[in-house]
Specification:
It is a single chain. The chain is an alpha+beta fold and 424 residues long. The protein folds into three domains: 120 residues, no CATH class; 133 residues, no CATH class; 88 residues, no CATH class.
Length: 424
């Protein structure tokens, strides 16, 4: 009996110990789970993102610091502009306000969350106003433009540079249309038109790209183009480009219109002088050439829009020559070398929106200097000096100043003087 009671006691103690251990371990596990749960709730789970920024395992404070660092770096790297044809308004990344606190508070652990952004209205309005599009609110879809900028900022993508407003017309038209077209008749000494039509009848210039005519000629090793033709095509292309969204990066003229191009629209090229255009339109531009008989035509095509560019000679006048009188000695013959008038032409560009003038630009003031009339005639002072020397007088030579009449302030260009080049 005592042995039985002893066994019962031992069994009871063992069961009690086991129950106590289980109870103690269970309470500890539950408490530990509760404690860890509270700690884990302050940190983001794996695969948690705010925009393109991973915030796995970070507290809200740490996540806010990381997002602030990333967005600040992005803003400092942005330097772009709004561009509308020939007008540009620059801005930096501080035009974007990053709503970091709101982004952190709304973030759901373990998910892809948006980086909340908005435009700084004051800076945006100031940048937009610089373009001078007030009064043309029906032209540009500003909401779509802003959404694109905010979309790039929320994913920390670099902003386009420049941002072409012509890509945000409210009524976009993807049809191609004739932008400008000009023609001229080839000179009888011109050579190279057939090679040009065969190889370069359709030239494509992408958005924001440069087109160098000299580079084209230099890389066309099989084409045969004489200087006359090169300058004819350069001047024709220049005039056509002035009536299009091309900007003129480089252009030159001769002092005497060496190749007899239209006054105000000459573009001189050779090995050291180029005609360079830049596509400012926001859409690709096509330069097409056609030929009928000895008449060459250049046409520019691109996407249709309410923009039209017109180049005109705003003012043209004749520059009359002055008379230069130069003394000669007795053994020389009196003579006159005739001069010829010069010409001055001012060219302007007008940009029209919906057929209404918007902006006017001064493009060039080309001056072809007159060739002055030169009279070579006897000078009495020189004759007197010569007589004095013959009678045993002073043998020192007499240096007489050039006598000038009708001086109008123009630079002297003698008939014997060759053509020089003036960059524009």
């Amino acid at each position: 009996m005592e042995q039985k009671n002893s066994l019962q006691f031992i069994l009871l103690v063992t069961i009690s110990s086991v129950l106590l251990f289980i109870l103690t371990f269970g309470v500890y596990k539950v408490a530990n789970a509760i404690t860890n749960g509270e700690n884990n709730s302050n940190y983001f789970d794996a695969n948690t993102w705010i925009g393109p920024i991973a915030i796995d395992g970070l507290s809200k404070e740490q996540a806010a610091q990381l997002v602030s660092q990333k967005t600040t770096t992005w803003a400092l790297e942005q330097n772009t502009s709004l561009q509308f044809i020939f007008e540009e308004s620059t801005f930096t990344g501080d035009i974007i306000d990053f709503l970091i606190e709101e982004s952190i508070q709304q973030a759901i652990s373990g998910e892809q969350n948006p980086l909340l952004v908005e435009l700084n209205k004051e800076k945006w309005d100031a940048s937009f106003a610089k373009l001078g599009l007030q009064g043309y609110t029906d032209l540009i879809d500003e909401i779509r433009l802003q959404d694109d900028i905010l979309g790039q900022a929320s994913t920390l993508q670099s902003l386009a540079n420049p941002i072409h407003m012509t890509q945000y017309f409210k009524e976009p038209n993807n049809d191609s249309k004739l932008i400008a077209s000009e023609s001229f008749t080839l000179d009888e000494t011109s050579f190279g038109a057939l090679s040009w039509i065969k190889k370069h009848d359709d030239l494509e210039v992408g958005t924001d790209l440069l087109f160098s005519l000299n580079e084209l000629f230099q890389t066309d090793t099989e084409g045969l183009y004489n200087a006359q033709f090169q300058n004819e095509i350069a001047s024709l292309l220049y005039k056509t480009a002035l009536n299009s969204p091309f900007s003129i990066v480089e252009r030159h003229v001769t002092t005497g219109n060496q190749y007899k191009r239209e006054v105000g629209f000459e573009a001189f090229i050779d090995g050291n002088h180029d005609l360079v255009l830049k596509n400012e339109y926001g859409h690709s531009i096509s330069i097409q050439s056609t030929m009928e008989g000895n008449k060459l035509t250049i046409s520019i095509y691109s996407q249709a829009s309410p923009i039209e560019v017109l180049a005109t000679i705003d003012e043209q006048k004749e520059l009359t020559p002055r008379v230069i009188i130069r003394p000669i000695e007795l053994d020389q013959q009196e003579r006159k070398v005739p001069g010829k008038n010069g010409t001055q032409a001012r060219v302007k560009r007008v940009v029209l929106l919906h057929d209404s003038p918007w902006k006017t630009y001064d493009i060039s003031l080309d001056s072809y200097l007159p060739v002055h009339e030169v009279w070579y005639k006897f000078n009495e002072k020189l004759l007197d000096s010569s007589e004095g020397n013959n009678s045993g007088g002073n043998n020192s030579s007499v240096t007489l100043p050039t006598t000038v009449t009708e001086d109008r302030g123009y630079e002297e260009v003698d008939p014997e003087y060759g053509d020089g080049y003036v960059g524009k």
